[in-house]
Predict the 3D structure of the following.
Amino acid sequence: MDQLIQLAIELVKIVVIAVVVLVFMMVAVLYMVLKLRWVIARIQSRLGPNRTGPWGVLQTVADALKLLQKEDIIPCGADKWLFTIAPALVFIPAYLVYVVIPFGRGMAPSQLAMTHSLGEIGKLPGLSIGVMYLSAISSIGVIGIVVAGWASNNKWSLLGAFRGASQLIAYEVPIILAMVVPVLVSGSMDLSAIVDKQAGGFWHWNLFQLQAGPALPIAFLMLIIAGLAEINVTPFDIMEAESELVAGFNTEYSGMKFALFFLAEFAAAFTLAAIITTLFLGGYNPPLAFLGGQLSGLAFSAVSLFWFLAKCWVLVIFIMWVRSTLPRVRVDQLMNLAWKALIPVGLVNLLLAGAYVTFWMAK
Amino acid sequence: MQILGFYITGYQVAFVILAGITLASAAMVVLLPNILRAAMFLGLSLFCTAGLYALMNAPFMAAVQVMIYVGAITTMIILAIFLSNRVMRIGFAQAIYNPLLAAGAAGLMFLFLFLTVVNSVWVKSAVAAGPARVGQDVPAVAQALLQPYVFPFELASVILLAVLVGAVVIAKEDVDGDS
């Protein structure tokens, strides 16, 4: 009987963590959509949403309610079964990557699931294959996009899906080449271990490490550029280019199914910010030691959560700034950038980092 | 815990669920008339195989399985189906022209796998440790790949390169033939 109770407690704990992560994701996306509208409006010298609630803060809540009420249309001639599961295939991977993200010291959901007491927080290692898990899970999403485009039985959707597949497959390569560099230098694929190696002041962050020559800063730039393409935002959003493809792979979607695509896209933007923060910007470490570095135990975990979210938020704003500033590239330009620029640079960069780790760091 | 007189662990429950989905979706791959749906079930089957690896305390293998088989190969199969309009209209059932030959090939494959499973030395400790603690197996895999198995590892990459070059050559000839 004791075992049964223990099992029930474990299950409840895991469900609670999963729900908390889901709620965090929803709230973050709701606020990011609102912030995006404000940022774009500001850059275009407009006011942006300002009627719904004070300063327009309820605008995305109203949008979400509208999407919930909308009729769920399945076009005739569509493959109903595939049309219905495609949004889930895009959304679930975008949700699953949050499992390994270290929101604070010892606060990656995978670590929290194994923690049995408050005192244990921050003492457990993260998932040993963290970086691989990230890229493996996010590579599933492309199946959802391709299937959504095909199942819609619409030529715009299909064209968008094909563009999406070629774009996402192409940009996965430079992303992995960029993520491998901090992994090599840190000697671990565990995201928490990579963050702990960057503790103690911003000059310890991987971005500012210059012993390996320019390898780490170059990897940082590559991750930002390729990441923007992977999350499909404006300079690189050719798979849903409005002026060419109506709305691309999700043209035929409405109501909650469309909301799931929308949610996954914004969740992916936050994930990109979190990955860049973790790998290059010191993760949950404070930028200067006196801003929380002297704390220990639970107090540090709480402060680290603040710093992680603050850094992510700065990057999210940066992504919005880029997407509201740059014009959309052409399809062939996009593919050339990946195959002829980013991947060769990434390979040489990886060689550089490897040479550094083999010949200098070992001594 | 004790259920109906049997002692059942959470590990066994997880194994039965994952193995059940793997086998059921594998059967769907062969039985479904729509080849695109069959490809989706192939993806599910491969994904659950990754779950089985994770259950055996081999998270590295699980991640590689998802990245290569689900993320890359299933996507490629789906794209290939889209690009070949004719394939879209026939299912596997119609595509099997010689059932005897197919049964023979499947039987040989089964025999080979069965003999391998029976003759392998299974490490019981990895399973006994349970899925709760993640094993420190990434360095072990890296050591194995780059020391005793470096030759087969490199050979596999040479074969892949040859396949890649071959595919480019075949695709190029097609273009020349048209002009």
